[in-house]
Amino acid sequence: MFDALLRPVIDPPLNRIGRVIAGAGLTANQLTIIAVIVGFANTAALSYGNTALAIGLILLNRLLDGLDGAVARVRGPSDLGGYLDIVCDFIFYTGVPVGFAIADPANAVAAAVLLATFTVTGVSFLAYAAVAAKRGRETTAHGRKSFFYSTGLAEGAETIVVFLAMCLWPAAFTTIAYIYAGLCVLTVIQRSVLAWRDFSDK
What we know:
The chain is an all-alpha fold.
């Protein structure tokens, strides 16, 4: 919901850092792989109940995720980079509820519900992108991407705020998870309405 609004604020500093990183010889794909390794470390930290460390790892993962795009804008985007970016993003996203479920079995049902809604939200996102690409649609609302990014209520910025809230108040994990799962369901409904409007044959 807020991702497109944040782009004009976060892209300029990321682009400046990205130019330095690209000049040092690092590639966007290398940053993406480092980011997913940080994501695995975050899941491990959460599974051991170390939410303080997890906060730092979540922020580091998101910083790297922003920088791989900045480097790609310098070196030129690639189809492989677009693929790796979205796959590694979903590995990171799903790793957070898994970590909380491992840390405390009482979180397992809420984590499973959240993972299920993440899956359906991700499917709706990618299905919309596939049909939009087939029809030649493009957008730069979320920055220059390898494929079409549709807007929804639950996007990256909202997810990170929710993850940080879970780390700050781990005892409230189940409540936060159920609330955000509901927002994910609303996002699927919203995207499905858009798909019906945009893709129905007249």
